[in-house]
Amino acid sequence: MWQGFKSLFIGKPSGEVAKGRLHLVLAHDRTGLDGGRLQEMRKEIAEVIARFVDIDPDAVDIQIETRNRETQLTVSSAIAPRNA
Amino acid sequence: MGRAIVITSGKGGVGKTTTTANLGTALAQLGHTVVLVDADIGLRNLDVVMGLENRIVYHVVDVIRGKCTLQKALIKDRRLDNLWLLPASQTDDKDAVTPDDMKTLVMELKGSYDFVLIDCPAGIEQGFKNAIAGADEAAVVATPEVSSIRDADRVVGLLAAAEVPARLIVNRISPHLVKRGDMLSQADVIEILALEMLGAIPLDDQVIATTNKGVPAVLEGKSLAAKEFIRIAKVMAGHEVEAKSSVGFFSRIGRALGLSATA
After folding, report:
1. Residue B211 sits in a domain of what CATH number?
2. How far apart are CA A67 and CA B28, in angstroms?
3. Range of the domain at B16
4. CA distances from A75 to A41, B45, B220 (A)
5. ipTM at complex level
6. Which residues contact B166 (CB under 8 A, 6 or more apart)?
7. φ, ψ for residue B105 (rounded to 5)?
8. What pTM does this model have?
9. How far apart are CA A56 and CA A60, in angstroms?
């Protein structure tokens, strides 16, 4: 996931890279969750969703973003077509 | 009753002590009575930045332990009539002081001085808790770097939890690096930390040179950093900030930072 974010910043002025990195780092810091706890949460959320709809639990993604000291948690997951 | 303002940052080395010395000196130059409190117990530094290191007899821990009166520990700055320093102890550790001790001490100082500026140690542990305990408000110092801003954000969260209102001072901003895109701008830092801004101090060789001599830059007055320290002191004290003296500086910085001149 981090490699993906890093590739987004290549070629930008370093100040902009710093800003992008800070938005991500602060969003994570503000949740007070370390990487392990976050993965645990992702796994449990995936399991709950999988009980109701057909998803690939490994493809559930959690994004944390922050704007104006408000931090937003977004969970996204592709749902398999019903006849698949 | 005076106001107690803690100068804090989380990260070390971003200019808390230099900021405390300069804002305190500038507030005294504006005619206010000011006491600077070094809350960095064990790593005393405000005395050397102020050039008062040879005059220390007693310190803050002596006062708290009742070894001497508050009056005896205060050092009067000979350059200005209304500026005082309460030095830290260099031999004790942070646990020698409790938040309640600091509250009592700061309350007593507020009874006699217009401004009590508290120089907070780096970190967010006991020393930080002591330093913010008696503060009515905070000035958070951050340099435009990822590590400093990250730590400042943590401190802002802790100050909010302690119900201490905080404003931001961006230190060591380099307009030409911002212009080139290689430094976070003042606007970027405000956006990221979502904090009201007191001012932005430009990176200035004069601050290093005057600090070498134990003279706060504002006493030698003419550098860009000194002018901004004086402007921030006026904002803190609620003085009218004259448009004329700050317009040139601000529009120049503003242009360099990609902002329109607001002054």
Report:
1. 3.40.50.300
2. 38
3. 3-256
4. 11, 48, 56
5. 0.81
6. B137, B138, B139, B140, B155, B156, B159, B160, B195
7. -60, -50
8. 0.85
9. 7
For residue B150, list chain A residues with Cβ-Cβ distance below 8 A.
22, 25-26, 29
Give the residue numbers spanning the domain of A22: 12-76
Quote the pLDDT of residue B262: 39
Contact between B180 and A16 using a beta-carbon 8 Å cutoff:
no
The span from the CA of A15 to the CA of B188, in Å, is 9
Has residue B262 been placed in a domain? no
- The answer to whether residue A82 is domain-embedded is no
Instruction: Write b or e for each residue in B32-66: b if 16 or more Cβ atoms lie within 10 A of its Cβ, otherwise e.
Output: bbbbbbbbbbbbbbbbebbbbeeebebbbbbbbee
pLDDT by position in tens, chain B (length 263): 999 999 999 999 999 999 999 999 999 999 999 999 999 999 999 999 999 999 999 999 999 999 999 999 999 999 999 999 999 999 998 889 999 999 999 999 999 999 999 999 999 999 999 999 999 999 999 999 999 999 999 999 999 999 999 999 999 999 999 999 999 999 999 999 999 999 999 999 999 999 999 999 999 978 999 999 999 999 999 987 864 334 344 444 544 554 443 33
- Helix, strand or coil, per DSSP, at residue A68: coil
Q: Is the pLDDT reported for residue A1 higher than 80? A: no
> Min CA distance, B65 vs chain A (Å)?
37
**Measuring CA to CA, which residue among B250, B249, B233 is closest to residue B7?**
B233
Q: Quickly tell me which residue has 């005393």 as its tokens.
A: B44
User: Nearest-CA neighbor of B188 among B260, B257, B140?
Assistant: B257
User: Given CB atoms, is A43 within the 8 Å cutoff of chain B?
Assistant: no
Inform me whether the C-beta atom of residue B188 falls under 8 Å from chain A C-beta atoms: yes
Tokens of B104: 């009592």
